[in-house]
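Q: Can someone sanity-check these two? First one:
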Amino acid sequence: MKAIEKSVELEKIKKARPRVALDFGNGTSSLYADMFRRVADVSVINGGLDGRFPGRNSEPSEANVQKLVKLVKQGEFDAGFAWDGDADRFVMVDEKGNFVVGDRVFALSVLLKAKKTKIKRIITTVATSRAAQDIAERYCAQTIYTKVGAPYLSEAMHKGGADIAGEEVGGVVWKEISLAKDGPATAMKVLEAMAEKPLSQWLAELPQYCNAKTKITASAEMKGRIMAGFAAMQKGKNVVAVDGVRINFADSWVIVRASGTEDYIRIFAEAKTKEKAEKLVKEYEEKVKGLRL
């Protein structure tokens, strides 16, 4: 907690004294309640630490944090914050009541980091929105992709050279604090930024992308054969193949990735428009289905 407080300008936040709704989800983020109370006027829901998660499902999805969304919309709050059970994942609601997905939490984190210090390199997973990479490029920084999963982010950060790491579910690694994803730290960084201007204005600085996804049934044996065949088809393209096959285009990308726990191959695409994202998913769904024969 002390490391988090040292990493931000506490007096700056205290002076602004933002009004924030906090949904701890009965998880470990509730242990940081006093830290937030010291700098902001807070209203808490699901505040008691309880591993049975009686208030809501521990995943801070938009569907699961509707109570928080409604609270922000009905009250005069500057933002709403929510975490998962172990507080490594963090999502937000802006002052207008708009839910902010994890991808945009990380992109905003990169922006805030870049505005405070010179960044040279960021780390993220192959399933993360291009928005973070776009921000990095805006500040002449390189993006390194890893496999999906928190251990891979921490391992890459441990090897050194990167300024910040994060993933699509709203987990961010702040190297000045630790090598683990830290939701309360991200929340404090956002509060510091909100002392300058409203959260919605910060979010307006981020690139906008739309996404689409689907999945195809495939047995364990079939998944290996399909992925090998699909990878061979992508020679000459801008490909990241550390976890599945991600193909990057000028303003869009698509990833084909075998599920590690289920009999599926998942296809996810992101583009500037919903129509283009859906078109990419459909195109690559047909390519993958052709390899099942």
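And here is the second, same format, sequence then tokens:
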Amino acid sequence: MACKQRILHIFILSVSLISCSAAACAAVMSMSLYFKKINVNVNEFGNYLPHHYAVKQMYDTGIRDQYERQMSAVFSMISLLEGEYRSRMIVNNELQENKTIEFSEQAFSAIIKKLCTTNKQNPVCKSLNPFTLEGISISQLIKLIQAFPSTLGGSLFPKSTCPFLDSTSKDPYQCNATLNYASNPIKFTIKNLKWSDEIHGIKELLYSSMKPILFTMPQLLAEYYIPCDDPRANETLECAAKTFDCPYNPTKKCGILQFPSHTLSGEYFIPNEPVGVAVGTPINFEIVGYSDWFVPTRGRMSLKQMKMSQGGFIAKGPDRDIGFPITVFTGDLKKSSAHGLCPNARASHFWYGPLRSCMKKGPDVVECSAMDNDDEYDTEKSFESADVLQCIDMNYCKEGARYSILHMPSRTYDTMVYEDKESGMTKTPMILLKKESVEDVVYDHVPFYLLGNIFDKMGADEADRSCGYWFIPYDVIEKVKSVTKDGEVLGFSFDVDFDKSSLLSKIPDGQFKRQLKITNAPNRVISRLFKKHN
């Protein structure tokens, strides 16, 4: 039986700059892309896609700890271009399979800023006022690259040319190095752009291209409705205006506290009532695979507010301390086996606190096992000591103070976490560790799943570069689509052509080659899946 053919869309960009009235420009900027749309048959896989898939390892350049900026369109694009270049050099025997290179997102950002400074009437540049690359979408970035091919097509400089600056810098888009894109030996162009806003279509884009694709959607947020007479809601806009009625008690006014709807092990989830759902600014990912079977495991977080999902996309994350290797999501590496590589020290559901029976012996939690030594069932599993947590955000805890969480008084190793029946905000029993004593506290300023942003697990092991991959469930994407406009949730694939002069053997500039700093690539478990489909 012939496979059902699905229709996706391909856009062809008109690269000529246009002049327009203010109203017309606003209309252009509101579009996800200024392209002519035509229909084409992308592939013949139809509904017969494999249930899980991941791209070849030669596209994997590892995670670089660049935190929230890695979720910008520019940083995601550079990550994809690195993988494209690496794979091309491996195929051409220019680079060993266990080696990789790094391009500078910082240099690319600086060139775009300079470009938009001198081309302020370009619709994309006009929309970036005040200038912030965190506000640019993938579609806008592709438009810029094709509108200015000689400039941005020559903007892949070595990482060492222009080191990374985080978003707290005075000007995070600057580069002190001289960037001569006209003489840059690496040249690239983008062509054959395809997109889809459907789950199946995005899977087809990934599987038919057999290389990473780009994905964008607004950040999914969890909303907690806190009464205005509660100090936690004092500074909210809703309480300042006293205009928002509490959903669970219309006679009261509430403020809204919003938090990202993902755990610090890199797994998105849909909030359940009484927690509300909202969306924030666009986030962007490089998609490297998918699994229809993977179920995000929330560890010891049995929270009603977190909807259980199954199936989703594997995405390259912004921080190797959050997430797992690709092969965990494809089922080729057990999550328990991955903890040695990826301790996920910021994920609170992986923290171990002392049992109350141990704390009766004294205030030094470091001397406490995370399990009751008198328990006859813990002979095969034990921990050297409970985890000590240090406050790193003075806005939410006593800066520098040490804490620990508590386990349930049972053999299940469940963390003691409760949920407020009205707001859904979690309440986590903790211990404030003092010099001569301990103090019981109930922490309810931040949801339990985000405690790793407030407390630092002391003595945590560093994660391997193969870690840091996130999981975006299909139902999360559908939920975001249901509360946003068309065109805000999109997957993109395209071909990248590198000029012949871009080959390592063709680059005459010895200093440029030295700056590329060819380094070891992250390891990955090669699975039966890869052997079958790659």
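A (reply): Looked at the second one. Residues 349-457 form one domain. Residues 1-42, 371-383, 526-534 have pLDDT under 50 and may be disordered.
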